[in-house]
Amino acid sequence: MPRALKPIVATLSPAASPRNLFLGTSGWAYPSWKPGFYPKDVPSRSFLQFYASRLTSVEVNYSFRTLPSGAQLQGWLDATPPGFRFSFKAPQRITHFQRLRESRAAVGEFVASLEAARVTGKLGPLLFQLPPNFAADNARLEAFLHAPAFVNRSLQVAFEFRHPSWFTDATYEILRRSNRALCIAEGDELKTPDVSTADFCCYRLRRSGGYTAAKLKTFARRFEQLAKTSEVYVYFKHEDEPTGALNAAKVLASASKLESGGRA
To answer: Between 20 and 30 A from 161 (CA), which of 45, 184, 186, 249?
Structure first.
């Protein structure tokens, strides 16, 4: 019989964080995050349980290459508390190989594979990250958004465009009509305009080396205000060092202080 996992005490209870702020990193299964983020005595099988005691969401990049099995997804759901959210990156088959063309079957398979997360209230945005050499094609984008799997407008879908030609009012209007979010991505070479196109927000903070303490406080103020009126998803970059996870925890703690009337 497998040994029961030792209960993990949260440093910041998810219940204490702003209700609509879902904050974390891209992934959690990084042994190199010991001991900076994960205590040295936490086994790898308990990483997600510990992670979810400190942060309120995670972006799953695994789904970019392989869809999770039902048992695998259920294990993730069981390891996280109520209110935790999983964001999933869309398969490369859709975004990089098909490039949003003739993708209805693949999109349907992707959405169906995550049904258990949706039913339990733990499904966050589905992120369609387009390749950098994919220039704007608004007709193709609009046709893609008519896939039967997207008929549920409450399904949170976000697009990260990595070619600047997409950053136009015409693209934003297409997203608004479908209630799909422009993912605000900040990297070393490209920054997405901070434009709202849906009733939720999605941010990916990808600058190498992390952010200064002052910048983290600015993020906390920004996201705490946004979370008053909509759900906000924020994901820091994962690296070999636990910089992203630690930055996410700092922003979440600061936002919680602001919500309770304190200072970041």
So the answer is: 249
